[in-house]
Write a structure and sequence with these properties.
Elements (H helix, E strand, L loop, with lengths): L1 E6 L13 H16 L7 E6 L2 H14 L5 H22 L12 H8 L5 E4 L8 H12 L3 E6 L4 E2 L11 E2 L1 E3 H11 L11 H10 L3 E5 L5 H6 L6 E4 L5
Parallel strand pairs: 1-2, 1-4, 2-3, 4-8, 7-9
Antiparallel strand pairs: 5-6, 8-9
Helix pairs in contact: 2-3, 5-7, 6-7
Length: 239
């Protein structure tokens, strides 16, 4: 089995902006357990870590220093933040993980085609979210499933913060999922669900995409055991 995990930067920081060291350690323990348990038969695992508050802080500082800073430069700051976060997880899994996050898509492909079972990555290029990176690497890996672990426990048919009648969805078709993403993309303060590029990639490759509570790393094993503790985006046959 080949699996891809996307760990949102939203969950690895506490409300006081400090790293959630305990949670990062729990992720390391669960990942180690999954790789070492023969019942899961994981031959390759790719983990993509988001930039979170570190990324936002660096971007904010850069903007305050110069109003002419380009978006491409700001994207690079976010990429480096996500790579630093991925290095923290690599540090906790240094005996299992490839020792450095890839610096490009081409390098990621070389690493994934090598002997390393565990590859941990941050961002790869400007203009591309880490959700899109996770989807692209999942497609390149030929992954059996992609698990998105963030502050979004379930997918709703619309923004639950704004609409009291928003419904949580256990299973959702790719096309319906893309519609929800398109309705909310690039709108500050809106329902931050997923990246449109990433959504299109999982659809074209038929990759099952799970959304689960990123504050509970043990849900990874629930998914691998065939459960759906959050929401599953997949192809739904319509009767």
């Amino acid at each position: 089995m080949k699996i891809t995990l996307k760990i949102g930067g939203s969950v690895i920081f506490k409300e006081n902006n400090q790293y959630n060291i305990e949670l990062i350690g729990n992720y390391a323990s669960v990942i180690r357990n999954v790789l070492e348990q023969q019942e899961y038969s994981v031959s390759k695992m790719v983990v993509v870590v988001g930039g979170g508050r570190l990324s936002r802080e660096l971007v904010s500082i850069a903007r305050s220093l110069s109003s002419s800073t380009s978006n491409a430069h700001l994207d690079l700051l976010g990429i480096h933040a996500s790579r630093l976060n991925s290095l923290l997880l690599i540090s906790a899994l240094k005996d299992l993980a490839y020792p450095f996050p890839p610096q490009s898509f081409e390098e990621a492909l070389r690493i994934m085609s090598g002997n390393s079972t565990l590859i941990i990555s941050g961002g790869l290029q400007p203009g591309q979210s880490t959700n899109a990176v996770a989807a692209i690497l999942a497609e390149a890996l030929g992954t059996d499933l992609l698990i998105n672990l963030s502050n979004i426990k379930k997918v709703y048919n619309k923004d639950p913060r704004k609409f009291k009648d928003a419904r949580p969805l256990d299973v959702i078709d790719y096309n319906d999922f893309i519609k929800i993403v398109m309705e909310n993309q690039q709108k500050p303060g809106n329902y931050e669900l997923f990246d449109l590029v990433g959504a299109e990639i999982v659809k074209r490759s038929g990759i099952p995409l799970y959304f689960v509570d990123g504050y509970n790393p043990k849900l990874i094993t629930d998914v691998l055991n065939g459960e759906n503790p959050g929401s599953l985006v997949t192809k739904v046959e319509r009767g």
